[in-house]
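Worked example 3 (structure in, sequence out).
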């Protein structure tokens, strides 16, 4: 439990979150370094299939307008497949839409994940997700179009948020082990609604290789984009060490 509220006049992270997501805000508010404040708004996502993930982005400008009034220093489109579902060009266009509307730096979880994997020199990755196959296929293509070879990808088959929310924290460990192989340089646990933060370090120790989650990549990229230079230890795997 946080003993002090997260107030900040210098490092405010603005998040655009899928409406069904109940994970990223608790994880950011618990694990983000002190002096960082988190401010979120939501876009409607009734279920996590390709059609609805693409439709969710239609209201991006309205979400940016709301966060602009909070004077955030960076804005993150905090949905992995929601920011990659239509490919590389679409993701880059989404960033441009956000930056032209709110006029602060914008990141997406999809591009943050690519940057995080490359930062850790992961060129071959095992990917664990809660998604259905059509969404996994889109993610695999995005990663490989970005220069990251997917050695294995496996999902839980969920499109309903509450079904995923009932999964225990240990599901992340099981997913990581399922997609691990000797060919993989590291593991990517995809989905900002998948619980990972409390056990990322433990997963890395169990597998002996770096593990990045959607939320760890998004937090890392937001901090880096804002120019945060704090020395506070954040127990979120090799990416933060």
């Amino acid at each position: 439990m946080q003993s002090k509220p997260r107030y900040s006049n210098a490092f405010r992270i603005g998040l655009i979150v899928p409406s069904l997501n109940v994970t990223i805000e608790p994880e950011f508010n618990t694990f983000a370094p002190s002096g960082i404040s988190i401010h979120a708004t939501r876009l409607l996502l009734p279920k996590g299939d390709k059609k609805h993930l693409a439709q969710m982005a239609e209201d991006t400008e309205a979400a940016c307008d709301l966060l602009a009034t909070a004077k955030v220093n960076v804005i993150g489109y905090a949905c992995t497949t929601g920011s990659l579902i239509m490919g590389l060009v679409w993701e880059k266009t989404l960033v441009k839409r956000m930056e032209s509307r709110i006029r602060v730096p914008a990141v997406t979880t999809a591009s943050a994940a690519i940057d995080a994997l490359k930062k850790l020199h992961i060129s071959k990755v095992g990917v664990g997700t809660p998604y259905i196959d059509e969404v996994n296929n889109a993610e695999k293509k995005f990663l490989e179009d970005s220069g990251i070879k997917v050695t294995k990808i496996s999902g839980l088959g969920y499109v309903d948020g509450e079904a995923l929310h009932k999964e225990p924290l240990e599901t992340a460990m099981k997913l990581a082990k399922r997609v691990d192989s000797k060919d993989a340089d590291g593991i990517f646990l995809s989905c900002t609604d998948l619980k990972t933060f409390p056990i990322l370090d433990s997963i890395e120790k169990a597998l002996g290789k770096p593990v990045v989650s959607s939320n760890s990549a998004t937090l890392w990229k937001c901090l880096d984009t804002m120019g945060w230079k704090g020395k506070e230890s954040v127990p979120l795997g090799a990416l933060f060490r």
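Notes: The two ends are 23 Å apart (CA to CA). The chain has ten helices and eight strands.
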